[in-house]
């Protein structure tokens, strides 16, 4: 055991001396300390509940704005569903639109937005935990609803902008070569995603974190999301194939949940990087702190000090030294202490 302990201590000292090792270890350690995996699971749960209302709003808006261009409608919807590899076509097959016009349509959209704000609340809570923003500094009701809706709208508008610009860049294949159109699509999506994450992180922390402290994590999140879009087809199809063999149709749901959880976890890792950079929280030790053993006398004294005062027969509070010292027994113990002091 001593040889193993010495090896672990040597490895710990090595990673603390080298920034290239100490920084990712610090990010990983803070991610675990914040229990960010549980926060990512909560975000993915609310994202799963919000994805259909938000897509329903998108389809409804496109039906109104692009009523005379159904082909462009389908292109934009397909671009939006491409954010969810493999399962996107399954979602499209079960996606409708809000019926009605005028006031009923507006009311329907408002209720859908209110129902979708749960994912914004989960993201705001996660970012506040990551940055250590206490509840006293977070907006209460009804401002919390306004902040959640602002985050939903900013991410939603960025999502639509990414979809629209990606569609335009993809359509530039008439002029550019196939490789040129693909590079343009990736570049445009990356820039828009960067701006969307930067603004989203700022809103999720209620403007209590400076813009410059959020730029690195925003860039990393945008790049990682773009990489997930490229490699997501393989990841989700592999997960979906395994899940479908076991669960049938429910495998689609599990595949979508796995995809949303992966996105949430990557986003929180990017946020943790911002915190570690801004507060220079590296290096850190990967070994547990040594446990100090207290002597029995010290533990007994500490317990005696923590005992609450017990009211005496006349209503006066009595500490541990007064308990059981009433009457003759109490007089005898006080006299003995007086003799000892002499």
Automatic annotation (TrEMBL):
> What is the name of the protein in this document?
YihY/virulence factor BrkB family protein
- Source taxonomy: Bacteria, Bacillati, Actinomycetota, Actinomycetes, Streptosporangiales
Compartment list: Cell membrane
Q: Does the keyword Amino-acid biosynthesis apply?
A: no
- Chief localization: membrane
Question: Which InterPro entries has this protein been placed in?
Answer: Virul_fac_BrkB
What are the start and end residues of every segment in region (Disordered)? 293-329
Where along the chain is composition biased (Basic and acidic residues)?
A: 315-324
Which residue positions does the secretion signal occupy? none
Write the record's keywords in alphabetical order, separated by commas: Cell membrane, Membrane, Transmembrane, Transmembrane helix
Q: Name one Pfam family in it.
A: Virul_fac_BrkB
Q: How does it sit in the membrane?
A: Multi-pass membrane protein
Source domain of life: Bacteria
Can you cite an annotated GO cellular component? plasma membrane
What sections of the protein cross the membrane? 39-66, 105-133, 145-169, 181-204, 216-236, 248-271
């Amino acid at each position: 055991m001593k040889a193993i302990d010495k090896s672990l201590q040597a490895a710990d000292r090595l990673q603390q001396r080298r920034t290239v090792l100490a920084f990712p270890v610090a990010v990983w350690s803070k991610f675990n300390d914040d229990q960010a995996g549980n926060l990512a699971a909560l975000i993915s749960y609310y994202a799963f509940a919000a994805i259909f209302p938000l897509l329903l709003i998108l389809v409804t808006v496109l039906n109104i704005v692009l009523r005379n261009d159904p082909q462009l409608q389908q292109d934009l919807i397909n671009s939006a569903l491409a954010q969810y590899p493999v399962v996107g076509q399954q979602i499209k097959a079960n996606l409708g639109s809000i019926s009605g016009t005028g006031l009923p349509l507006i009311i329907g959209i408002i209720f859908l937005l209110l129902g979708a704000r749960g994912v914004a609340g989960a993201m705001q809570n996660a970012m506040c935990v990551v940055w250590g923003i206490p509840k006293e500094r977070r907006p209460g009701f009804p401002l919390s609803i306004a902040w959640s809706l602002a985050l939903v709208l900013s991410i939603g508008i960025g999502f639509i902008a990414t979809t629209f610009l990606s569609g335009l860049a993809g359509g530039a294949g008439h002029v550019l070569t196939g490789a040129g159109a693909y590079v343009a699509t990736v570049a445009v999506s990356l820039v828009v995603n960067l701006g969307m994450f930067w603004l989203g992180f700022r809103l999720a922390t209620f403007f209590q974190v400076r813009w410059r402290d959020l730029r690195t994590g925003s860039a990393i999140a945008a790049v990682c999301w773009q990489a997930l879009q490229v490699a997501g087809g393989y990841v989700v199809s592999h997960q979906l194939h395994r899940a479908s063999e076991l669960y049938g149709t429910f495998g689609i749901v599990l595949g979508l949940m796995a995809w949303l959880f992966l996105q949430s976890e990557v986003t929180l890792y990017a946020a943790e990087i911002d915190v570690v950079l801004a507060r220079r929280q590296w290096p850190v030790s990967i070994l547990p702190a040594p446990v100090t053993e207290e002597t029995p006398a010290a533990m007994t004294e500490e317990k005696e000090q923590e005992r609450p005062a017990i009211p005496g027969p006349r209503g006066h509070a009595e500490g541990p030294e007064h308990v059981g010292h009433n009457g003759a027994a109490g007089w005898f113990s006080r006299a003995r202490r007086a003799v000892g002091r002499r």
